[in-house]
Structure formats: structure tokens, C-alpha cells
From TrEMBL, chain A:
This is Nitrogenase protein alpha chain. GO terms for molecular function: ATP binding; iron-sulfur cluster binding; metal ion binding; nitrogenase activity. This molybdenum-iron protein is part of the nitrogenase complex that catalyzes the key enzymatic reactions in nitrogen fixation. PROSITE patterns: NITROGENASE_1_1, NITROGENASE_1_2. It is an enzyme of class 1 (oxidoreductase). Keywords: ATP-binding, Iron, Iron-sulfur, Metal-binding, Molybdenum, Nitrogen fixation, Nucleotide-binding, Oxidoreductase, Plasmid. The gene is nifD. It catalyses: N2 + 8 reduced [2Fe-2S]-[ferredoxin] + 16 ATP + 16 H2O = H2 + 8 oxidized [2Fe-2S]-[ferredoxin] + 2 NH4(+) + 16 ADP + 16 phosphate + 6 H(+). Its EC number is 1.18.6.1. Tetramer of two alpha and two beta chains. Forms complex with the iron protein (nitrogenase component 2).
Automatic annotation (TrEMBL), chain B:
It comes from Nitratidesulfovibrio vulgaris (strain DSM 19637 / Miyazaki F). SUPFAM superfamilies: Helical backbone' metal receptor. This is Nitrogenase molybdenum-iron protein beta chain. Belongs to the NifD/NifK/NifE/NifN family. Gene3D superfamilies: Nitrogenase molybdenum iron protein domain, Nitrogenase Molybdenum-iron Protein, subunit B, domain 4. One of its GO terms (cellular component) is molybdenum-iron nitrogenase complex.
């Protein structure tokens, strides 16, 4: 836990009261529970935040839907699959190439469908008479034209309402075409945010693909879970891991192919980047196959090094540990040299972070490496465990809006369950907090910081007015709102079309981009000279 | 190859749309709503739609796009979204204080059959709509038509919810510009101003979606058509609706509702469509066209004559929205170009007929498809290559694979600046379009010419 060096001079408790007083009383009470002013020395047990509850209608939320969480986030990045969106045209159109999950086809003849957008383009007659036949035909056409490794089908809002049985169509067409067809019931209205879609995607991967094919993996083999290769992040992570002698079996799901989804159970360790979107799979893989998982953070130089050391500790091999230490030394030295130019311009700058379900936390470490201070942070759709740590999971109550998201019953695979660690060593690592644990965002936020869940437009406006941060990290919908105020906004979903931001090279890229953004001449030019000069001048020659 | 799996051989598809040349209704309604002064668009559905529509408009304009949503949950999806919308209306007016909320629907609320008329009525009766403020609405089912249909439906919604006839004409002409860029709306107003017509234009996104950076943020910029002007549209002497797909419905509704006669014209893109627009303005206002307008027209003709040799006979592939493509096709034909492949994702057989009619007797065969997609367009291009492609940002994947000169045109353009600041309508817009086309054609000539044939002057 750290405390602020820069006191923004704002009494946060009264600020929060003031902001919530803008709402009608019932809404004010609800929103108040989503804001927590962090108190120093609180281990996260006394303070509690409300999260993963329904969005207040009309409030102007940043949130998206279940479909976006399933197709847009978890499944969409699989490059050799054809992803068919069963619905009217919009859902597939808006998710067409707009998330920057990069993908390289495997070899010259490798398949890559990521530039394409596939939809059943439902019409009113499909709503009235049902869309199952059209969906079946669409799968047939996709199979005939493209012969992909697998096909996914994603339900959108009306599909659930009209009762199309996409699971039955998928089973039937899998048989008919000989291509695996995975159907996801990720209708947009399910749950309260993208989060429900993550869970639905995890379940189906686990249920239908994982463990269906075998592969030989070496001793130091890992999967990277919850890493979507935005702007090439996964490439940088893989580069460093491979340099250390660590084999990446599968990444879920950046730069991945269907085969990876099927063989991931052969790895010896799961590394969880985005806890929110993939912790379900990590848990289920451990129960069924005996693969332990650990939370890592590859964003920021020091977190990257720390994560590598955790991996070394897990594998407990002298040669591997030595190699990891030499990679850390080399990479840190190179990054520090490159960062020297930017550090003086970033030191002491204040920031706010409002990003999805994990980055608002991950990037705090990188910012602190650069001498920057996060004042306020929040997630769109994370749950309490992402804020408060997994220790609070037993106390989380699933409310009416999310209770219909299925929980799979998982048991150990009678043949393939294999404990990866000696029980005594495992116990020791658990005691050290290295396994099956995530401390949550606010362990890293100290006295005088503010946590806001599902932040609304008006709340961001008030924060800017009152706290005047040097930079805000958010997404496309907020970027230009924030910048109209003269405050730079770094998009931490799409990196403003830059990247990678992960790993050592990523830290340098991020520092350069943020430095350029904060020091852009534009912010100093907003006042027009005609507004500030005297209204009358005597002549042109003086 | 980015689109390495697109085969040259064309097989008819009956169910799978690949690389759509359209998107869904509500985004058009949101765009139209932003053209009313002090208006907050509201999406009555689950919140994913609203997030996507705001994001897409923002990527196109690099500007804030404010809109609220009813944020349906599973419960609301089964039992109806009335409570969500009522709560949203109350929250929006107390927190964001718009003058007007423009509600549109999604496939979700349309499938469950929410009755907007009844819900808005209830909101008014329950006092959730402050005095002097209003809630207008339009039904915009995503499974009918396209984003263009949604735009049209919301403009019609403006007329239905706002326009009234007082029985006394106000001497003004209504101009419904259709889905054009803020810069085009500005240009259309400038032209009407030059003709000396007293007019009301709606919607009008100029100043809303191409605003300045001043260090201050205003959710509702001092721009857009005031609601009272749309109300008074019922007293106008006539309506000029630009674009059959975007504007005709609203104009005809205004005619039947308030007895304001209307005329549907093409969007004023290119020489002839601009001529017809100006002629219509002149006639309806009873004025004569000033020299300044003829001067601009003459400049356009001058550029056509100066550079005709580079346009002559060039084959073009076009993809986009029907009203823009009809006018653009006519303009390219005026330049002696050959629009050989024309695709819109928006359904409507009239489109195909109109394009065929325009191209008839020009010495080439045109492939045209309404409710087509960009996969088909790409296959057509593979079978009959073109010298130029014009369309939205998604064309760049075809362009890179096939190495074709490319002019960004239409919606969305998410990777370049300009469309929000410089018009393609009017005579000035015609010159700008030619400048852009010549730019890419002559850059290509410069790139490909052998050294000894490399030219200094064109």
C-alpha cells in the first residue's frame, strides 16, 4: 500500500457525497455503495464495495453487454475459427476489428479469419418464424466457403426471446459438416455487463474443447490466461517467457488457434493475467486436471520481473531461476536506459484509471514505475474479488440479475488429473500467497485514493473539475469528453492504436506515448490570443 | 493477404452475410437525435447497443457522443422495459438536464413489444418530464433495413412528435439533409443562405460533431436544430427532402400531418444533383440564383475540363448507403468514369433500378446489389478489377490485398480526418471529391511509372 505524495486537496468523503447528491435519492444511495475512499491500514476487510450489480438506467454508463464479453473479448481472438453472430447485423458489425487482438496465421497456409465479419443478419421474418434454419444454412455456407478449424455461434438479444435453440443447431451442424461448432448463449441482456459473457465463454471452452486433443508439453510449460494480445502484448510476453526457457502452450485467447483451446490441459502452470475474464477457467482446470494457477501482472517493468520470479519459485529449478534472473537483469537495464528520456516528464503526474475489469489495477504498477500517482481508479464490470481480493468470495451474494449464469459442476478427471506439485511444496507456496490467490486492486491503493465502480459520465466530469488530474486512462466513449476539458486521455482498452504496452518493451512504449500525450502542445493552446489581449489596439506598428 | 480466404468464384449465399455493407437502425437514430439542440439520445434496450453505437460514432468523429440507455436486465427482457425507461427519464432529466430526450429502440425492446408511446405518455402523466421539456421517440428495430432506416425513422419521429400546424404559414422552407456529415450540413445551409431562402434544416449536427477544443466541455453544444424550429416546421411552405432513403419518410409524414407539400430530391453530391437542389431552392423561394453560386459552379466545371483525361474510362467500385451512392454514381458518370460495381447493404430494389437507369447506355455493364455485402463486392472486383474503390474504412482490407487506389467516402471512416470538416456536397464538395480522386489516381501513376516516363506536370 502506498500513500499519496501529491495531495489533491480534496476531502474525498465530502466529494463523494456531493457527487451522489446530484442523483435522485434512491439512485444516490445505490451509487454511494459503489464508491469507497480508501483508508490506510485497512487490509480490505472492513471496507466493502458494491460491484457487479445492475446498471442504473439513464445514468450514462461505460458498460457493454454479455455478447461483447463473450464474442468480443474471449472467443473473438481465435483466428482460425469462423465466428458467426446470430442476430441482426449490428452486433457483428460493431465488433468487427474494433478490438485490437492481433493474430498471426500459423505458417504460410495458416488460416486467419479475423478480418472478416460473419452474421446471419436476422430480418423481421426470422424474428417471427424463428432463425434456426437460417443459422443452420449460414453455418453450412461458412463451412463450404472457408473450411475453418472450428465455428462459433453467438446469440444476441432477440435470439433468447424468440427461442431459437442454437445449441441443437450447433450439434446438428457439427455432425453434418465435420467441423466443431460451439454455440454460446450470450444474449446481451444476460447478467449486468460484459462479465456474464466471460463466464459463458469460459464454461463452453471448458465443456466442449479443453482436453479434447493431446499434446506433449515440457516441464516448464505454462498457459497465459486472460491475455488477449491487444496491440501485440502477448507477443512481448511470449518473447520474454521464451527467452527465459518457459514454454507457452496456450494463451487465452490472444494470438490463439482452436487447437490451443483443446490442448491447454497439458501445461504445468496457469498464469492468470486478467483475473475477471478467465478465473473461472483457471479454477476449473485446477479441479479437473490438477494444474495450479497464479496471478501474474506483465504490465510494468517491476511487476513483470516479479511475475517471472514467481514462476521461477513455482518451478523451483536452479538453472531456470538463474536464466530468469539474467533475463530480468538484461531487460530491466535496457528498458531503464530507454525510459530515462521520459521519466523526468512523468514524475509526480497524477492519473485516474477507469478501465474494464483488470487494467485499472495492472497499470497502476507501470505508472508507479514511472513516478506517476493514481488518485482514483475503478472497473466497469469487475466483481468484489477484483477490488477486495479473492478472500471475500465466500461473502459475495449472487443477485437476481446474475443468478441465471450457469456454474459448471467440475470434478477431477479420473485418468488425467495429475497434481503438478509435491503437496508440501504446494502448501508452502500457498502460504506465500503465490497460488490461487489475487489480492485485488485496492490492496495497491492507499490512503487518500478513491475507488469508483461502474463510473458514470457525470462522476467523471466532477472528478475532472475537482481533482484536475494530469491524465485519465479510459476508453473510446470517454476519450474526447475528457480531452474537451483539456485533460489528456490515454485509452487503455485499445492503447490509442499503439502498443504493445506489456512487458519491458511495452513499458517503454507506454512511457513514450503518455509523455507525448501529456506534453502535447495542444493543451497549452486552448486559450485563444484574441480572448486574452486588450480589445483595442492603437495600431499595427507598435 | 488480409482477406486471403475470399475466393474468386462466386457462390450464391442465402443465409450468411459476410463483411456487411450496413449496420443496424439505432445508430442512425442516435446520429439524427444528436442533430437536435440540447438533445440526449436514449437507447431503449440492453446497454451493449448503446455502448457500441456511441463508440462507432466516436471513432468516426473523434468527438464526444453522449447517449443514455435503459440498461435492460434479463428480468426486464421478459416482463417489459417500462420501469427501466421511466427510471431513465427521471435520472436523465435530473442529472444531465437536456431539453429533449430522443428515445429509440433496439431488437430487444422491439421483440418484446414495448410500447414507447404509452411509456412516454406515462412518464409525462407521472411528472417525470419537467415543464417545457420533452421526450420524443421512434421505433427502430434492428432486424429491419439498416442504419439508414434508423436515421430516417428518427427524423420521422421528430416530425411526428414535434411538428404542428398552427394554420398560419411562416414562409420558411424545411430542408431535411439526410445522413450527411456535419460539414455537409454546414455547406447545405451555406448554399441555401446564398440563394436567400428562409429555411429550417433538421436534423443538423454541424457544431455538435465537429466542435472545437477550448478547455471546456459542454454535453449540449450551442448547435443543432432547436425543438421549437422543428415544431414550426409544420407551418413551412414546403419541404425539400434530400435522399429517398434518409429523408422522404419524414417529409411525407409532415405533408400528411401538417399539409406541408414536399419534394424528394437526391442528395446534392456532384454537379447535377447540386444543380437540381439549387434549382428547387430557387423555385420554392421565388428568388434568382446569385452570381456567387454560378461562380462556384463554373469553378467545378473548370476542374472537370482541366482534368477530364484522368477520369475518362476509369472503372470504379462503390460501397455505401443508397442516397449517397446514387448521387455519387451520377457524379462519376458526369466525369466519364465507369462505376462498374455498386453495393449497398441497405435493402431496397429501387436502388438497383436507379443505378441501372443512371448507367444505361454509358457503354459498360454495371453490377449492382442492394442488400449486398463487401465480400460479394470483393469477389466482383477479383473478377473484374477496378481503377478506384470508394467506400468506408472497411474497404482498406480489400484495397491492400488488391492494391487499388482508394478514396474514403461514407460511414464509418475511422482512420482518417477530414470528413467532419470538409463537405462533399455542393459545388465545393464536388471539387473536393475530384481532388481526392485525382490525388490517389495520380499518386498511383507516379508510383508505377517507369523512371523515363515519370512526369513533372499533370
Amino acid at each position: 500500500m502506498t500513500t499519496l505524495k501529491t495531495d489533491p486537496g480534496v476531502d474525498l468523503e465530502s466529494f463523494v457525497d456531493e457527487v451522489t447528491s446530484l442523483y435522485p435519492p434512491k439512485v444516490a444511495k445505490k451509487r454511494r455503495a459503489h464508491m469507497v475512499v480508501r483508508k490506510d491500514g485497512d487490509p480490505g476487510l472492513a471496507q466493502q464495495i458494491e460491484a457487479n450489480t445492475r446498471t442504473v438506467p439513464g445514468i450514462i454508463t461505460q458498460r457493454g453487454c454479455c455478447y461483447a464479453g463473450c464474442k468480443g473479448v474471449v472467443i473473438g481472438p481465435y483466428g482460425d475459427m469462423v465466428h458467426i453472430v446470430h442476430g441482426p447485423v449490428g452486433c457483428s458489425f460493431y465488433a468487427w476489428l474494433t478490438r485490437r487482438n492481433q493474430f498471426r496465421a500459423r505458417g504460410e497456409a495458416g488460416k486467419n479469419y479475423l478480418s472478416y465479419c460473419f452474421t446471419t443478419d436476422m430480418q423481421d421474418e426470422d424474428i417471427i418464424f424463428g432463425g434456426e434454419k437460417k443459422l443452420a444454412q449460414a453455418i453450412r455456407e461458412a463451412a463450404a466457403i472457408f473450411r475453418p478449424e472450428a465455428i462459433s455461434v453467438h446469440a444476441t438479444c432477440p435470439v433468447g426471446l424468440i427461442g431459437d435453440d442454437i445449441q441443437a443447431v450447433a450439434r446438428e451442424l457439427s455432425k453434418e459438416t465435420g467441423i466443431p461448432v460451439m454455440a454460446f448463449n450470450c444474449e446481451g441482456y444476460k447478467g449486468v455487463s460484459q462479465s456474464a459473457g466471460h463466464h459463458i465463454a469460459n464454461n463452453k471452452i471448458f465443456d466442449m474443447a479443453l482436453g479434447t486433443r493431446e499434446r506433449e508439453a515440457g516441464r516448464f510449460s505454462v498457459n497465459v490466461l486472460g491475455e488477449y494480445n491487444i496491440g501485440g502484448d502477448a507477443y512481448e510476453i511470449e518473447r520474454v517467457l521464451e527467452k527465459c526457457g518457459i514454454e507457452v502452450v496456450a494463451t487465452f485467447s490472444g494470438n490463439s488457434v482452436y487447437e490451443d483451446m483443446c490442448t491447454a490441459h497439458s501445461a504445468n502452470l496457469n498464469l492468470v493475467m486478467c483475473h475477471r475474464s478467465i478465473n473461472y477457467l483457471a479454477e476449473m482446470m485446477e479441479t479437473k486436471f490438477g494444474i495450479p494457477w497464479m496471478k501474474v501482472n506483465f504490465i510494468g517493468m517491476r511487476s513483470m520481473s516479479q511475475s517471472l520470479r514467481k514462476i521461477a519459485r513455482y518451478f523451483d529449478d536452479a538453472a531456470l531461476t538463474a536464466r530468469i534472473e539474467s533475463v530480468i537483469a538484461e531487460e530491466e537495464a535496457r528498458a531503464e536506459t530507454a525510459l530515462a528520456a521520459y521519466m523526468p516528464g512523468l514524475e509526480g503526474k497524477t492519473a485516474m484509471l477507469f478501465v474494464g475489469g483488470s487494467r485499472a489495477h495492472h497499470y497502476m504498477h507501470l505508472m508507479r514505475d514511472l513516478g506517476m500517482e493514481p488518485l482514483v481508479a475503478g472497473f466497469e464490470f469487475a466483481h468484489r474479488d477484483d477490488y477486495e481480493g479473492r478472500r471475500v468470495i465466500p461473502t459475495i451474494r449472487v443477485d437476481a440479475d446474475s443468478k441465471n449464469i450457469e456454474e459448471l459442476k467440475v470434478t477431477a478427471d479420473p485418468e488425467r488429473y495429475r497434481p503438478r506439485l509435491d503437496p508440501a511444496y504446494r502448501e508452502q507456496l500457498e502460504r506465500e500467497g503465490l497460488l490461487s490467490s489475487y489480492e485485488g486492486m485496492w490492496d495497491d491503493m492507499g490512503e487518500g485514493t478513491l475507488v469508483i465502480d461502474d463510473v458514470s459520465h457525470v462522476e467523471i466530469e466532477k472528478l475532472i473539475h475537482r481533482m484536475n488530474p494530469d491524465i485519465i486512462c479510459s476508453g473510446i466513449k470517454d476519450k474526447y469528453v475528457i480531452e474537451k476539458f483539456g485533460v489528456p486521455c490515454k485509452q487503455l482498452h485499445n492503447y490509442d492504436y499503439s502498443g504493445p504496452y506489456a512487458g519491458y518493451e511495452g513499458a517503454v512504449n507506454f512511457a513514450r506515448d503518455v509523455y507525448a500525450m501529456i506534453h502535447s502542445p495542444a493543451w497549452k493552446l486552448t486559450r485563444s490570443p484574441f480572448d486574452t489581449g486588450p480589445t483595442l489596439t492603437a495600431g499595427l506598428n507598435d | 493477404m488480409l482477406l486471403r480466404h475470399t475466393p474468386t468464384e462466386i457462390k450464391e449465399r442465402s443465409a450468411l452475410n459476410i463483411n456487411p455493407a450496413k449496420t443496424c437502425q439505432p445508430i442512425g437514430a442516435m446520429y439524427a437525435g444528436l442533430g437536435i439542440k440540447g438533445c440526449l439520445p436514449h437507447s431503449h434496450g440492453s446497454q451493449g447497443c448503446c455502448a457500441y453505437h456511441r463508440s462507432t460514432l466516436t471513432r468516426h468523429y473523434k468527438e464526444p457522443v453522449s447517449a443514455a440507455t435503459s440498461s435492460f436486465t434479463e428480468g426486464a427482457s421478459v416482463f417489459g422495459g417500462q420501469a427501466n425507461l421511466l427510471q431513465a427519464i427521471e435520472n436523465i432529466f435530473s442529472v444531465y438536464e437536456p431539453e429533449i430526450i430522443a428515445v429509440h429502440t433496439t431488437c430487444l425492446s422491439e421483440t418484446i413489444g414495448d410500447d414507447l408511446n404509452q411509456i412516454v405518455d406515462k412518464a409525462v402523466k407521472e411528472g417525470k418530464v419537467p415543464d417545457g421539456k420533452q421526450v420524443i421517440f421512434a421505433s427502430t428495430p434492428s432486424y429491419v433495413g439498416s442504419h439508414v432506416t434508423g436515421f430516417s425513422n428518427m427524423v420521422k419521429g421528430m416530425v411526428k412528435c414535434l411538428a404542428v400546424s398552427s394554420g398560419k404559414k411562416n414562409g420558411k422552407v424545411n430542408i431535411i439533409p439526410g445522413w450527411v456529415e456535419p460539414a455537409d450540413m454546414e455547406e447545405i445551409k451555406r448554399i441555401a443562405g446564398m440563394i436567400g431562402v428562409s429555411f429550417t434544416m433538421f436534423p443538423d449536427t454541424s457544431g455538435v460533431l465537429n466542435g472545437p477544443l477550448t478547455g471546456e466541455y459542454h454535453m449540449f453544444p450551442d448547435a443543432g436544430t432547436p425543438a421549437e424550429d422543428i415544431r414550426a416546421a409544420g407551418d413551412a411552405i414546403g419541404t425539400l427532402a434530400l435522399g429517398e432513403w434518409c429523408s422522404a419518410d419524414a417529409a411525407r409524414t409532415l405533408d400528411s400531418q401538417c399539409k406541408v407539400p414536399c419534394r424528394v430530391l437526391d442528395m446534392p453530391i456532384g454537379l447535377k444533383a447540386t444543380d437540381r437542389f439549387i434549382d428547387a431552392l430557387r423555385v420554392v423561394a421565388g428568388t434568382s440564383v446569385p452570381d456567387t453560386v454560378n461562380f462556384e459552379r463554373g469553378q467545378l466545371i473548370d476542374v472537370i475540363s482541366d482534368y477530364h483525361q484522368y477520369f475518362f474510362g476509369k472503372k470504379v467500385a462503390l460501397v455505401g448507403d443508397p442516397d449517397q451512392l446514387i448521387a455519387l454514381t451520377e457524379f462519376l458518370l458526369t466525369l466519364d468514369m465507369q462505376p462498374v460495381h455498386v453495393v449497398t447493404g441497405t435493402p431496397g430494389k429501387k436502388f438497383e433500378a436507379r443505378i441501372r437507369e443512371l448507367c444505361a447506355g454509358k457503354g459498360f455493364d454495371v453490377n449492382v446489389r442492394a442488400a449486398g455485402d463487401m465480400f460479394l463486392l470483393h469477389q466482383w472486383i477479383k473478377n473484374e478489377p477496378v481503377d478506384l474503390i470508394m467506400g468506408n474504412t472497411y474497404c482498406k482490407y480489400i484495397v491492400r490485398d488488391e492494391d487499388i487506389p482508394y478514396v474514403r467516402f461514407g460511414f464509418p471512416i475511422m482512420d482518417r480526418v477530414g470528413h467532419q470538416y470538409f463537405p462533399v456536397t455542393g459545388y465545393k464538395g464536388g471539387i473536393r471529391l475530384m481532388e481526392k480522386i485525382l490525388g490517389v489516381l495520380l499518386d498511383r501513376a507516379d508510383r508505377d511509372a517507369p523512371e523515363e516516363k515519370f512526369e513533372l506536370v499533370y
